[in-house]
Design brief:
The complex is a heterodimer of chains A (234) and B (253). Chain A has 11 helices and 7 strands. With 234 residues, chain A is α+β, with helices and mostly antiparallel strands. In chain A, α2 packs antiparallel against α7. The longest helix of chain A has 22 residues. The model of chain A has no long low-confidence stretch (mean pLDDT 90). Chain B has 253 residues and is of the alpha+beta class. Chain B has a domain of 164 residues: 2-Layer Sandwich (Beta-Lactamase), CATH 3.30.450. Chain B is built from 9 helices and 5 strands. Chain B has a 5-stranded antiparallel β-sheet with strand order 2-1-5-4-3, sandwiched between helices. In chain B, α2 packs antiparallel against α6, α6 packs across α7 and α7 packs across α9. The chains are: A alpha+beta (234), B alpha+beta (253). At the A-B interface, α7 and α9 of A face α7 and α9 of B.
């Protein structure tokens, strides 16, 4: 079960690339796929491949970048999952003509699953998976894949916003409490920063005060704490 | 709520017309659910309503609530661990607490929370049904103890069914593999909307309820999807000055 494997990942000392590789490996091990890759959006909104489990996955990423077409690109821009049981089939070739033909010529890929890595409006990138045999993932695997993409997004976001050894991040993030999201929105206005940066500041505050993120978030929403340059408290 | 049968029937009719209208063309599931919980409170003899959906890990997540009141949200979220919603979700059958003061055996933590932290006495859960299973539940809260009257049970289930159809859309009901995608989209949209509520709430120095009114008013008056507008708000792509409040803000309880 990929999700369980990811929830158990020890994140100490793992940089973004190593984390991505761990995620890709877990997907390939736990799902009926042949390869996986993760591409992310950099600070300048350019796309970058963080990891590719094999040569084919690498070629897939390369093709989508160069052609700016394909399920991965679509998943990245729409923020919705794009599942393609057979890239040679008419609906796929009509949808992404150049990409489909290039894939057919250069790779043995038939099935492609592109899952966006995001937390609400925070878009981190895409998790791409492929298989040589056509066909969808079965119900249970599909659920696992979606859930794994959620956890993968949180792992990567956690790494980016880490105040330095915060152990409770994954647990509070997977609980997905409304107040945490609302507080993120409020703080991004207060500081004039991006959503991930706002989240990082919330985490830093919680960590340095030995408090749970959800409790800090509640205080922010209730306007007991506001972030203006330095944190202002009553 | 005492209304003549004729009046109620007219209201029910109007509600379904609006809901059906919302589902024509391209629409936003979250918008539909938001309207729907409002109708639940208006048409059924209840004081608050909420909708929870099961995510990919089968955890219950709140996607709509008739009141952004922290109390109601808390009672909805608590049921991820214990409560009529959870039982309803797992069994795909309606589950009711007719009096929270008498149901401690089955749901000790939940009934204690309801009794201590709210004025609600009755809690009902109706399944969002799909092929013998539930994708979530419609939760109804009442300050008066007692079972839901038969008519309300039927109407409530019909509204829950509308919610299911609205979320999954007809094609998903036909093609099983799309169900997960639709659910995923609804759940992700909710996170985006919560983030946007924070942005607007801070910008206008209002509570999140009022912020949501502005967000919804902006989206509806431009025929745009709530979730898309919310995303653009969070990415600071829109001029917030254009987010005026609706002339008749919804009555939140």
């Amino acid at each position: 079960m990929v999700t369980r494997a990811l929830l158990g990942v020890a994140r100490d000392g793992l940089d973004e690339r190593a984390l991505a590789e761990t995620i890709c490996r877990a997907c390939v091990d736990g799902l009926d796929i042949d390869g996986a890759s993760i591409s992310v959006l950099t600070a300048t909104d350019a796309r970058e491949t963080l990891c590719a489990s094999d040569q084919t996955a690498d070629v897939l990423e390369e093709l989508q970048y160069t052609l700016n077409e394909g399920p991965c690109v679509e998943a990245a821009t729409s923020g919705h999952p794009v599942l393609v049981p057979d890239v040679h089939e008419r609906t796929a070739t009509a949808r992404w003509p150049v990409f489909a033909s290039a894939i057919g010529e250069r790779t043995p890929v038939r099935a492609l699953f592109a899952l966006p890595l995001r937390w609400g409006a925070i878009n981190l990138g895409v998790l791409d998976m492929y298989r040589r045999a056509p066909g969808n993932l079965d119900d249970e695997q599909r659920r696992d894949a979606f859930s794994a993409a959620d956890v993968a997004a949180l792992l990567l976001l956690g790494q980016r916003t880490d105040p330095g050894g915060d152990e409770g991040w994954l647990e509070s993030a997977t609980a997905s409490r409304a107040e945490v999201h609302q507080a993120t929105g409020m703080v991004l206005v207060q500081l004039g920063v991006s959503a991930p940066e706002a989240l990082a500041r919330l985490r830093a505050y919680a960590f340095s005060h030995g408090r749970l993120l959800i409790d800090v978030a509640r205080d922010v929403v209730a306007r007991r704490i506001s972030f203006v340059e330095d944190v202002k408290e009553p | 709520m005492s209304r003549s049968p004729v009046e109620r029937e007219r209201s029910v009719g109007q509600a379904f017309v609006v809901l059906a209208d919302t589902m024509v063309d391209d629409y936003d599931a979250i918008d539909l659910l938001d309207r729907l919980v409002g109708y639940c409170v208006e048409l059924l003899s209840v004081d608050a309503a909420g909708i929870v959906l099961g995510d990919a890990r089968q955890e219950l997540r709140v996607v709509a609530a008739s009141s952004e009141d922290a109390q109601v949200m808390e009672l909805l979220q608590l049921q991820n661990d214990e409560g009529p919603c959870l039982d309803c979700f797992q069994s795909a059958a309606p589950v009711s607490i007719v009096d929270v003061t008498e149901a401690a055996d089955r749901w000790p933590a939940f009934t204690a929370a309801v009794a201590e932290r709210s004025e609600f006495r009755a809690v009902h859960a109706l399944p969002l049904r799909l092929r013998g299973q539930a994708i979530g539940a419609l939760n109804l809260f009442d300050r008066e103890p007692g079972a839901l009257p038969e008519n309300d049970l039927t109407l409530g289930q019909a509204l829950a069914d509308v919610a299911t159809i609205g979320i999954l859309q007809e094609r998903a009901i036909r093609r099983a593999e799309i169900v997960n995608e639709q659910l995923q989209t609804a759940l992700t949209s909710r996170v985006t909307i919560e983030q946007a509520k924070g942005v607007l709430s801070e910008h206008f120095e209002e509570n999140v309820d009022e912020a949501f009114d502005r967000l919804r008013h902006y989206a509806r008056s431009r025929n745009a999807k709530l979730a898309e507008v919310a995303g653009r708000v969070v990415r600071r792509e829109l001029d917030l000055a254009e987010f005026t409040p609706p002339r008749h803000p919804s009555k939140r309880r």
